[in-house]
Design a protein that fits this description.
- The protein has a single domain (about 1-75), classed as 2-Layer Sandwich (Alpha-Beta Plaits).
- About 35% of the residues lie in helices and about 35% in strands.
- It is built from two helices and five strands; from the N terminus they run E-H-E-E-H-E-E.
- It has helices spanning about 10-25, 50-60, and strands at about 1-5, 30-35, 40-45, 65-70, 75.
- Strands 2-3-1-4-5 form a five-stranded antiparallel β-sheet, covered by helices on one side.
- A hairpin with a 2-residue loop joins strand 2 and strand 3 (about 40-45).
- The protein is globular, with a radius of gyration of 11 Å.
- The mean pLDDT is about 90.
């Protein structure tokens, strides 16, 4: 499962996103963070599918500072 998250450029936000994955004991085998003038883009590849993956994506979308989340390329 791939999550693409766009939000404000903030170390605190990045920690919250990684923390949500950690709550499910998930390790991101691949993670990419890009910081631009407009904000931050995070790509997480997680070994999680189905309803639990949707729950994690929805929790990330509700984080303060997150503007958008896409799950496997499909916006939530």
């Amino acid at each position: 499962m791939r999550l693409d998250i766009v939000g404000e450029s903030s170390a605190a936000l990045l920690c919250r996103l990684v923390g949500l994955a950690a709550q499910h004991d998930l390790v991101a085998p691949e993670m990419e963070v890009r910081v631009t003038e407009d904000g931050m883009a995070v790509r997480l590849d997680l070994e999680l599918d189905g309803p639990p993956g949707v729950i994690v994506a929805e929790k990330m979308l509700r984080c303060i500072g997150v503007e958008a989340v896409a799950l496997d390329g499909v916006p939530l």
